[in-house]
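Our platform keeps sequence and structure together, in a single record for each protein. Such a record has a labelled line for the sequence and another for the backbone structure tokens. The tokens are whole numbers drawn from a learned vocabulary of local backbone shapes. The remainder of this section carries one protein's record, kept here as part of the documentation:
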Amino acid sequence: MKRKSLKTVLKLWVLAVLLVACNHSESSENFALESVEVKADFEAVETDDSTTETPKLELKHLKIIKSANVRYKVEDVKIATERVKRISEAYNSYVSDLRFENNLYKKENRFTLKVPSKDFNVIMDSISSVAEFIEYENITTKDVTSEFIDVEARLKTRLEVKERYESILRTKAKSVEDLLGVEEKLQRIQEEIESSQGQLKYLTNKVAFSTIQIDLYETVEYKEEPEHYKKTFLSEIKDGFISGWDVLKLFFIGLVYIWPFVIIGIVVFILIRKRLKK
């Protein structure tokens, strides 16, 4: 009985120790949670700017083709066109084509400017000053840098191949067959080189000069088209002179066409006249 009571006391003591330990750990955890303060202080976070900075592209090495399409309503088409021409001449630009249209509703002038790419933005700002109303302005760009680099690389490779074939032609080609074979390959390489050079020149010109398509128009007061046009007295006299001159030209041209018959008639007339005299 004493042993059982001793064991029971020991168990109760151990259980009491465990309860005390659990209560202590819970109180310490609660204390720790209550002492923590959450602060939304973003300045405390240090970042390394050198690792997150994005490398900047060097625009001067890019090959970009610029073009624009604009349509402006102006007060006077001819005056606005002259102003645009003066602006373009100031920046070494030129008009590549021009088309004028005049109808019962409006006057319209459509032309294309070829401008240096470096002055593209300045010219666009300048020509917009002639507009009474801007209907639209569309600007497009095309990056041909990769195409430009690819053509340059292929051209460089073909030039190197050409040099090797020329070296073979000078030193190693001895027979006629070898000479003809190397010359044929050289001719083919030369054609490819000229093709690459032409493509490179085309891209260079497209990059150097931008295209601006300009439409200038003015509205006019609508007038009904007359059913019949009556000519004035002076116009009829002028038409009479022109018609008389045309008839005279036709007469002389007709004589040129029938000159053999004229000569034969003259000869027959002379012979008949001589016989009659006899």
